[in-house]
Amino acid sequence: PMESGGEKTVDKRAIARHEVREIEQRHTQDGLRDRDSAATVSNSEDDVVIIYNRVPKTASTSFTNIAYDLCGKNHYHVLHINTTKNNPVMSLQDQVRFVKNVTEWREMKPAFYHGHVSFLDFTKFGVKRKPIYINVIRDPIERLVSYYYFLRFGDDYRPGLRRRKQGDKKTFDECVSAGGSDCAPEKLWLQIPFFCGHYSECWNVGSQWALEQAKYNLVNEYMLVGVTEELEDFVMMLEAALPRFFKGATELYKTGKKSHLRKTSEKKPPTKESIAKLQQSAIWKMENEFYEFALEQFQFVRAHAVREKDGELYLLAQNFFYEKIYPKN
Predict the structure, then answer these.
(1) Which residues fall within 8 angstroms of residue 187, CB to CB, at 6 or more apart?
(2) What are 314's strand-pairing partners?
(3) Biased-composition ranges for Basic and acidic residues (predicted)?
(4) Does residue 27 sit within a domain?
(5) In which domain, by residue range, is 129 found?
(6) Three-state SS sequence of 81-122
């Protein structure tokens, strides 16, 4: 009986050794696999995707050109999302395709995507790593005036291109006093739905829910949202936060010929009366509330990141460190 007990023990040990060997082999294979996948994405910085879902007429072209100018030197890809008829809402099947592409298109990472698309929540599609969203918004009336003249006169970026309302010589003021549709308060409803996203209610003009959702997304889903009026500061903050993409951006913005691109031709500033008339509308009040909310948030972020000295802005150095690190070796 003793012998058989001893044999059992040997058996058990042999099996255990065999199992250990199997686990070790598996680990080595996993290690090799991990190493290979690590080689394709050398580090987490190279896996980053930025989405800039540009609101029309907010200086988005000027900003995007900085990304184009830097992508060669900083080694990332810039891709324009061109939607049919500039439709900011994607079909469900296109949303799935887009999320899949952005997430899995290894050869294009790191990437900077830009286009007139409303916010899309990647978590609903089960992805592990979300892209970084950024955006720029503008005073709603100024944005509308810019768009109004852009449709009539185009700009200096593609001067030969015929625009939708070309030949219509009516000024913005004339449009407002005549109650025209191109300068109607409904046309102000754009920045809210762009931030609100792909929900039906976002596109219901004047929806309180859409305003709240837009604010929620701005705070929770966007890394940084700048304002047209203070674009240089926005560029500077991005360079500080994401040097992998924006190293050299501030200098380029200050000295670049392209940074103030796309002046809308023939733009006449609206009169006080026109502005007052638009400001009476509930839609303006909501769009303006959203704009002020975004502006305040941007100024808050900036106040905690930069200081001004002799009229020059400079970034604060790192203000935290680690201590009381235990256990001691």
Answers:
(1) 144, 147, 181
(2) 307
(3) 1-37
(4) yes
(5) 41-315
(6) CCCHHHCCCCCHHHHHHHHHHHHHCHHHCCEEEECCCCCCCH
CATH code of the domain in which 163 resides: 3.40.50.300
Strands 222-227 and 132-137: parallel
Q: Where does the pLDDT of residue 265 fall: very low under 50, low under 70, confident under 90, or very high at 90 and above?
A: low
Q: ∠ CA 288-298-278 to the nearest 5 degrees?
A: 10
Same domain, yes or no, for 270 and 291? yes
Q: What is the mean pLDDT of the chain?
A: 89
Quick one: pLDDT at residue 39?
A: 53
Q: Based on the domain organization, do 199 and 301 belong to the same domain?
A: yes
One-letter amino acid for residue 99 of the chain: V
115 with 141, same domain?
yes
Residue 13's pLDDT is 78
- pLDDT mean over 215-244: 97
23 and 48 assigned to the same domain: no
- Catalytic residue status for 304: no
Contacts of 311 (CB under 8 A, 6+ apart): none
Same domain, 30 and 63: no
Q: Are residues 264 and 134 in the same domain?
A: yes
What is the rounded distance in angstroms from the CA atom of residue 209 to the CA atom of residue 214?
Answer: 9
Q: Does the annotation count 116 as an active-site position?
A: yes
- Pairing state between β 222-227 and 77-80: unpaired
Phi, psi of 129 (to 5 degrees): -120, 115
Return the pLDDT at 3.
53
Q: What pTM was computed for the model?
A: 0.84
233 and 115 belong to one structural domain: yes
Do 238 and 177 reside in the same domain of the chain?
yes
Q: Are strands 132-137 and 49-52 parallel, antiparallel or unpaired?
A: parallel
- Render 22-77 in DSSP notation, one character per residue: HHHHHHHHHHHHHHHHHHHS-SGGGG-EEEE-PPTTSSHHHHHHHHHHHHHHHT-E
On whether the CB atoms of residues 78 and 67 are closer than 8 A, the answer is: yes
Residue 328 inside a domain? The answer is no
Catalytic residue among 75, 77, 114, 260: 114
Q: Which of 77, 116, 198, 304 is catalytic?
A: 116
